[in-house]
Amino acid sequence: MSTNPTDLSPRRKRQVALMYHFASLEYLKGLLPRVEDLILYASALADGRAHLDKFLMSERWGARDTSANWSTYGFPSLVEFRETTLWDIQARSRDVYGITGANQCARMLAEYSLMWLTPEQERQFKERFGLVYRYASRIDDVTERDSTMDDYTFWVIWNEHKEAFSRLPRFRVRTDVEGESGKVPPRTGVYIPQDDPWGTPQFAWAGGSLRKDGSRWHGGRLGDAVTFNAMGLEAMETVGGSHIWPWDDGAGAVDFLRRKEIKDWEGNEVRDESDAVALLGGASYGEGVFDPNVAGGTTTRPCKWYYVELLEGEYEDTNEPVAKSVPRRSGPGMYAKTGEHCPYPGVWECVERPVGTQTIAYGVPMPQVDGQDVTWRILKSV
Fold first, then answer.
1. How many other β-carbons are positioned within 10 Å of the β-carbon of residue 88?
2. Burial environment of residue 2 by CB neighbours within 10 A (0 to 12, 13 to 18, 19 or more)
3. CB within 8 Å of 69: residues ≥ 6 apart
4. Helix/strand/coil (H/E/C) assignment for every residue in the chain
5. Domain ranges of the chain
6. Per-residue pLDDT of the chain (382 residues; tens, 9 = 90+)
7. From CA 56, how far away is CA 37, in angstroms rounded?
C-alpha cells in the first residue's frame, strides 16, 4: 500500500464510495417507503388482533399486553420515525445532516409489550423492523459524530453492499481543501487524514445541524481519525492487509497473536479467526490480556484532513471485488449449529446453555461448548 495518503488505494476507494453512498439524499429517501410500509404492517396487525383485547386484560397488568395499549403508546414511535425521516430529507436542502430516528424508535418500541401478537407475528414484526433499522443504521454510521468506523467495520459493510457498486465512482483528493479534527469542514463531503494512509475516511458537513427549535450547532465537525495502533499495523504488515479480514490468511492472524502472547477474553490462547477479529478489529487487550475497555488493534488521534471530491457521473474502468462475500441476510432468527460455517459476522449466543456470547466472524466454523455440539443464535451483527 502506498504511504502517500492522497494516493487512493482500492481499499480506500471502496471506503469513500460507501460513505458517499450512505450519505446521499437518494439513499435517505429510500428510508421513507420502508418506514411507511412498516407502519401499514403494524397497523394491520393491531386492527386484526383488537378483538382479543378483552381476553388479554389482567388484574395485575391491566391493559399492558393489549393491542390498544400498544397502539396508544408504541405505534406513535413509528409515526415519529416517519416524521423525523421527512424532516431529515427537507433539511438536506440546507446542508444539514444527522442521525435518523431509528434508534429512538427502537428504544420506544422496546418499552411496550407485544404479547397481544402470536409468537410468529411477533417474530415477523421484529424481523421487518430489524431490516428497516439496519437500513437506517448505515446513515447513522456516516452522520454520527465521533466515528468508530474502523477498517474491519468498512470491510464488513462493503461485503454487505458491494452488489450496489458494479463500478466504483471516480474521486479526486483536493489538497487545497483542508479540514481539522474538532472543526466544521469548509465543504460537505468525505475527508481522509493527511498523514495516515490507514486512517479511515469520515463524512463531515459545513451546514452543521439544526435542533427541532431551529437553532444550529456544529454537528458536522470532523472527529479524530480512527486508525491502526502499533499492534494493528504490525498485524497488517505480517499477515497482509488484503487478507486480514477476508480470512483467506486467517491462520496467519491467529499465529501472529499467539506469537505476541495476546490472550482472549477468558485469558486463553487465541484459538481461531473469530478470536483474532475480535482482538484486531476494534476489540481490546491490556497487559497482554483481553480488556473490553482498551482499544485493541485500533486507536484514534486528532489530525488534519483532505477533502475527497466525488466526480459526478465518472467511474473507474474496473472494480476488483474483495475475496469473500458476506450474505446480506441477518438479524434475529438466524441460527447455526456447531461445525457449520458462520453465516454472518456478529455476536452469537448458545441456545441450549447460558455460557455468554461470542463474537464470531463470517465463514468461521461455529464452536462447541464444553465439547458438545450446540445451536447458536445471532443477537446482533458487527
1. 22
2. exposed
3. 63, 112, 113
4. CCCCCCCCCHHHHHHHHHHHHHHCHHHHHHHHHHHHHHHHHHHHHHHHHHHHHHHHCECCCECCCCHHHHHHHCHHHHHHHHHHHHHHHHHHHHCCCCCCCHHHHHHHHCCCCCCCCCHHHHHHHHHHHHHHHHHHHHHHHHHCCCCCCCHHHHHHHHHHHHHHCCCCEEEEEEEEEEEECCCCCCCCEEEEECCCCCCCCEEECCCCEECCCCCEECCCCCCCEEEECHHHHHHHHHHCCCCCCCCCCHHHHHHHHHHCCCECCCCCECCCHHHHHHHHCCCCCECCECCCCCCCCEEEECCEEEEEEEEEEEECCCCCCCCCCCCCCCCCCCEEECCCECCCCEEEEECCCCCCEEEECCCCECCCECCECCEEEEEEEC
5. 230-296, 335-381
6. 555 667 798 889 999 999 999 999 999 999 999 999 999 999 998 888 767 666 656 666 666 678 888 888 888 999 999 999 999 999 999 899 989 999 999 999 888 888 787 889 889 999 999 999 999 999 999 998 877 788 888 988 998 898 889 889 999 999 999 999 999 999 999 999 999 988 999 999 998 665 555 555 567 899 999 888 877 888 877 777 666 665 545 567 777 888 888 776 677 787 777 777 777 765 444 444 444 445 467 888 899 999 999 999 999 875 554 434 434 334 444 677 888 877 667 788 887 777 778 888 766 788 888 888 888 877 776 5
7. 27
Residue 229 C-alpha cell reads as 495502533
Residue type, 302: P
